[in-house]
Every structure is written in C-alpha cells, then in structure tokens.
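hey
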C-alpha cells in the first residue's frame, strides 16, 4: 500500500470514532430536551451534526475503497473501533478496565497479523 493510502486509512480511523463522540454528545443533549420525540430529535443539533459527519465519512470511505481492497481497508478500520473507548474515557470520563487493555492489545496484534498477511505492509 502506498503512503497516501495508509494516511487515508488513518484519517478514516480517526473520523469514525469522532462520529461516535458526536452521537454520544447528542444522546446527552437528548436527555436534557423536553417535548415530543420528533421535536426533541429535530432540536438536537449535535445529532444533526453526527448525521452530517457520517454522511461525509461514508463518502470518504467510498473514496478509500476506490483505491484499496475492502479487506485491507476494513482491517484498518479496526484501529478506529479501538479508539472509541479511549476517546470515551478522555472526553466523557467513561471507565476503562484491564479487560479493555487486554482486548486492545489483541486487536492491535490481530491488525498486525492481518496486514502482514496481505503482503502490502
């Protein structure tokens, strides 16, 4: 894989958990809003921002898939999934236990094995 492709995958791996942070913030905002469900959803600007963000990242994902095989690109998205709990801990002070650390090490190890197996690392 070319350096540019790695950078695209890394950017996506960061964009994906950022979207999850938008959704979490929207959920916290939703709890503070009053009124009928539809009105609360329409007044929840972080939720609207999360939908826009996901639309943009979906287009970004499409672009990545024009350059990189799906199996490789999806493997890179594992890194983004691993960042979500770290960001939740840092931003929302959600607890992380030893199980997260152990699981994270396993995920990163699996990522390394898969990428080595593609012959493109």
């Amino acid at each position: 894989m070319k350096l540019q492709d790695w950078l695209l995958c890394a950017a996506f791996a960061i964009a994906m958990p950022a979207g999850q942070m938008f959704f979490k913030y929207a959920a916290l905002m939703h709890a503070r809003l009053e009124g009928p469900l539809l009105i609360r959803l329409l007044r929840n600007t972080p939720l609207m921002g999360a939908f826009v963000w996901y639309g943009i990242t979906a287009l970004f994902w499409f672009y990545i898939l024009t350059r990189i095989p799906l199996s490789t690109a999806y493997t890179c998205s594992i890194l983004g999934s691993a960042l979500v709990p770290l960001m939740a801990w840092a931003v929302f002070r959600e607890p992380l236990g030893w199980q997260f650390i152990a699981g994270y090490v396993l995920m990163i190890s699996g990522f390394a094995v898969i990428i080595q197996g593609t012959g493109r690392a």
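Residues 3-118 form one domain. The CA atoms of residues 25 and 46 lie 7 Å apart.
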